[in-house]
Write a structure and sequence with these properties.
Blueprint (H helix, E strand, L loop, with lengths): L1 E3 L1 H8 L3 H12 L4 E4 H15 L3 H15 L3 E3 L3 H16 L6 H12 L3 E4 L2 H4 L7 E3 L1
Parallel strand pairs: 1-2, 1-4, 2-3, 4-5
Length: about 140
């Protein structure tokens, strides 16, 4: 099973060739792809950033986004993920290898549920030890 990070979702929606190819590969395996509530927040935040106070466009894009996101199973954050993320963040900070906290939470979720992370963000996720990653 898989956990898609925000970059994968955005690339897939934007028809990035490599993301679409990876999605086809996963579909052919009939495997489940999860996303976290962090990914949902990051994806929706982008809409608000891009369209500012243009409420008609925001409403239209949010409706489309909901259609994009409903295709995935969602994982909510919980105490165990927060605890794992806190440890990962502290360890990376001590090593001078800190990454964005959203990526720490996504990585901790993948580790906790033993999911393979789908991403092209090698620079961040490669820093999390023992994380199973599939780059596209």
């Amino acid at each position: 099973m898989w956990l898609a990070d925000t970059t994968f979702i955005i690339d897939l929606v934007n028809n990035d060739e490599e993301a679409v190819k990876m999605a086809g590969k996963i579909d052919s395996m009939h495997s489940i792809v999860f996303i976290t509530t962090i990914t949902i927040q990051e994806y929706l935040r982008g809409i608000y950033y891009l369209f500012g106070n243009k409420q008609d466009q925001i409403d239209e894009k949010l409706s489309k986004a909901e259609g994009d996101l409903v295709r995935f199973s969602w994982i909510d954050l919980n105490y165990n993920i927060a605890k794992a993320a806190a440890q990962i963040d502290a360890d990376l900070t001590r090593k001078g290898m800190q990454i964005g906290y959203a990526d720490v939470l996504i990585g901790a979720t993948a580790q906790f549920y033993q999911l393979t992370l789908l991403t092209r963000n090698k620079n961040h996720f490669d820093r999390i030890p023992l994380l199973k990653i599939e780059f596209y």
